[in-house]
Every structure is written in structure tokens, then in C-alpha cells.
Design brief:
The complex is a heterodimer of chains A (179) and B (134).
Chain A: H1 2-25, H2 28-45, H3 54-76, H4 79-90, H5 94-108, H6 112-123, H7 128-134, H8 139-178
Chain B: H1 13-17, H2 23-35, H3 37-54, H4 65-76, H5 80-111, H6 124-133
The chains are: A mainly alpha (179), B mainly alpha (134).
């Protein structure tokens, strides 16, 4: 019985959870490792938790594992690892991933809990009530946090655009110099 | 110092876009937006964020991930019926080994019943006896 339920949630959620982890970790190997660990934890705990909480449990454990990894990365502040991670991420098809990389870059500038809110509301299409259940908070808290997070995200996107425009100008000037 | 103009409806706009408001509140906000430039501007900002996020193209999970996952959890957890069979087999083997040991040693004692309490020639003691004496 539990095995069947596990198989169903694995088929339904593995891709979504993998993409959430890719967005915040920006590294396919790390995303896969945490994806695997999160499903193993869920499998162990399934007998003890309600079926309606499976998804929330899965995302919470993935979030905490990702958070630990981000903290470790920040502590190490190892440029070599960062560059290596970006290389492996950029080895995917280019055009699609440039957009994905921009979105990931923007989301990674948010606090991890803010990125989780965006993930649950925008990508997973959960209602405020469902998000509140996952995060053990109230609907009004979800609402006000989302408003703040979207404002923050808007600023980040505007800054990204400015940087892109400046880079485009530099490329244009450099081309002019070569002629 | 110039203060940024704000509207009390502003914080309801995300819930409005997300369809989280009741019908009456939704209609109320909708009416307000039609005559408030601040909120119209804020709605544009929120929609820009949504459009930006919407461009994300989902990537596939690494090939064979789900299959590997199913295999790994099924190997860590043995089916209860199989577990019972394994436990029974272990218990049966122990009983069988013990019974065989008792029967075998009875045979050895019977063979050598003429020599009082002398272990049989085939016993382990007899086997090593020569070596020990040597």
C-alpha cells in the first residue's frame, strides 16, 4: 500500500521538486542528491504521516537540505566550486538555459524561505491555505510575505535588466572599436 | 524629503492576481484598480514578475531517476512476508543443526558403549588425540 503511494508521489512530484532544487541550487548534481535524499526521508516517514501532508513534508525536507547546503557553500565561499557548478549548469542547451539561469540567479538572491514561497505559489500553484499548511503559518502571513517577496523580486529583475543593458552596450562599443 | 505615495489597496493586489479573494472583495478591488493609477502601476509590476517567472522551462529529472529511486527503497525495506519466511528459515536451520548434533553424538556414544565413557573413534577428540599426544 505504502509502496504504491510512494510510487505515485514519486511520479507526480520528482520533476517539480527537481526543478525547484535546480532553481535555488543552480547545480544539477546537488539538486539530484537532495531530490534523492528527500524521497528516501519521505519513504521512511510515510507510515507516520497523513497522506495529505506527503507533498508538504517532501518540500520541507528538500528545503531544509538545500538550506544547509547553501549555508555550507556560503561558509566555504569557494570560488572554485562556484565556477565548477556554473560550468556544469551551462553545459545544457544554451538558449533555454540562459532564461532559466537568469530566473535561478534572481531567485537565489532571495532568502531561501522567500524562494520557497514563490515556488509553492507560482510554480506549484498552491493556494494560500495550502502554503500556510506546508509552512506552518497563517494565510495572512503568507499573503504579506508574498507581497514583500514579489516587490523584492521586481527590484532584482530591474537590476538584472540594467546589468544586461550595460553589458550589451559594452559589447556594442567593443565591436565599434574593432572596426 | 519626498515621500513615496502609497495606496491601502496595494497589499491586496497579489491576492487579487492569484485569485485568492472572495468574489465580493475581488469585485471591490477590481473597481478600485480602474480608478487608481498607483494600483494600476503596481499590478503592472506584479505581472512583470509573473511573466519573468513564467519563462522558466522545466527540465527533466535525470534519466532513470524514478526507477533507481524505487529500486533503492524496495531494497532497503524487505516485504513483511519475505521477512517472516527468512526468520522461519533461520530458526528451522538452528533447530535442525541442534537435532543433527544430538543424534550424531548419540550414535558415537552407542558405538563405543563397551568402553565406559570413552569417546568414539570418530569423535573430534579422538581425531585430534594423536596430534596432542605427539
Amino acid at each position: 500500500m505504502i509502496e504504491t503511494k510512494f510510487e505515485i508521489i514519486l511520479q507526480e512530484e520528482s520533476k517539480k521538486l527537481y526543478n525547484y532544487l535546480l532553481k535555488i541550487l543552480r547545480n544539477p548534481e546537488d539538486a539530484e542528491d537532495i531530490l534523492q535524499e528527500s524521497f528516501i526521508i519521505l519513504h521512511k516517514k510515510m507510515a507516520a504521516i497523513e497522506e495529505s501532508s506527503y507533498k508538504g513534508y517532501l518540500y520541507k525536507s528538500a528545503y531544509h537540505k538545500a538550506l544547509n547546503l547553501i549555508k555550507k557553500r556560503n561558509k566555504k565561499n569557494n570560488l572554485f566550486v562556484k565556477n565548477k557548478n556554473m560550468e556544469s549548469y551551462q553545459s545544457e542547451p544554451v538558449e533555454e538555459n540562459q532564461v532559466n539561469a537568469l530566473i535561478s540567479a534572481a531567485l537565489s538572491k532571495l532568502k531561501p524561505e522567500e524562494a520557497l514561497l514563490i515556488e509553492l505559489q507560482f510554480y506549484q500553484k498552491l493556494s494560500y491555505q495550502e502554503i500556510a499548511k506546508v509552512l506552518d503559518t497563517t494565510e495572512s502571513a503568507v499573503d504579506s510575505k508574498l507581497v514583500r517577496t514579489k516587490k523584492k523580486l521586481k527590484k532584482i529583475i530591474d537590476e538584472q535588466k540594467k546589468v544586461q543593458e550595460t553589458e550589451a552596450k559594452v559589447v556594442f562599443i567593443n565591436r565599434g572599436d574593432k572596426k | 524629503m519626498k515621500q513615496k505615495a502609497e495606496c491601502s489597496y496595494e497589499r491586496k493586489l497579489n491576492a487579487y492576481i492569484a485569485g485568492e479573494l472572495s468574489e465580493s472583495k475581488h469585485n471591490n478591488v477590481q473597481k478600485h484598480i480602474s480608478r487608481c493609477h498607483l494600483c494600476q502601476n503596481e499590478i503592472r509590476n506584479l505581472l512583470q514578475v509573473d511573466d519573468f517567472l513564467d519563462q522558466y522551462t522545466e527540465e527533466e529529472v535525470p534519466a532513470g531517476f524514478n526507477e533507481r529511486m524505487l529500486k533503492s527503497v524496495s531494497s532497503t525495506k524487505v516485504n513483511p512476508l519475505i521477512r517472516k519466511i527468512i526468520d522461519f528459515s533461520i530458526a528451522a536451520s538452528i533447530v535442525l543443526a541442534f537435532t543433527a548434533g544430538v543424534v550424531l553424538s548419540n550414535d558415537l556414544y552407542t558405538e563405543n558403549s563397551d568402553n565406559n565413557f570413552t569417546l568414539g573413534e570418530n569423535s573430534l577428540y579422538s581425531y585430534f588425540e594423536g596430534d596432542l599426544d605427539a
